[in-house]
Design brief:
By secondary structure, the protein is an alpha+beta fold. It has two domains: 41 residues, no CATH class; 69 residues, PH-domain like. The protein has three helices and six strands, in the order ααββββββα. Strand 1 and strand 2 form a beta hairpin. The chain is elongated and about 65 Å long.
């Protein structure tokens, strides 16, 4: 997606004489998308240490599995609910298939504790 935004900016810059300030939005969007892509490819999406799951994105989100009250699985995504009304959404499309299998078996062990 970032390449598409960058190509829009390049086409405008090459074929028009006036590159307005709003057209730089294409450049900003393109560089942002590419930056997020390279950050995600360089860093792991999820990290499990002890009883905490950390979701790494622009801002890290920590979830204490000892406070887990429920797990919802819809449309290929996982939603973790805690007793303190905190939720953590996990996008499973980003996760490698082997790692996703490990995550599912890990979460299943907590589902048995909930019942």
């Amino acid at each position: 997606m970032g390449l598409i935004w960058l190509s829009f900016f390049m086409l405008i810059a090459l074929f028009t004489n006036d590159v307005g300030i709003w057209n730089y939005g294409y450049l900003i969007f393109g560089l942002s998308y590419l930056g997020i892509y390279f950050y995600d490819s360089k860093n792991q999406y999820l990290e499990i240490k002890g009883s905490f799951i950390t979701k790494k994105f622009i801002q890290k989100k920590h979830f204490n599995l000892e406070q887990l009250s429920g797990i919802n699985r819809k449309f290929g995504n996982i939603k973790l609910l805690s007793k303190t009304q905190k939720t953590l959404y996990i996008n499973t499309e980003i996760i490698d298939k082997d790692s996703l299998k490990e995550l599912n078996t890990f979460l299943e062990s907590f589902e048995y504790k909930l019942v």
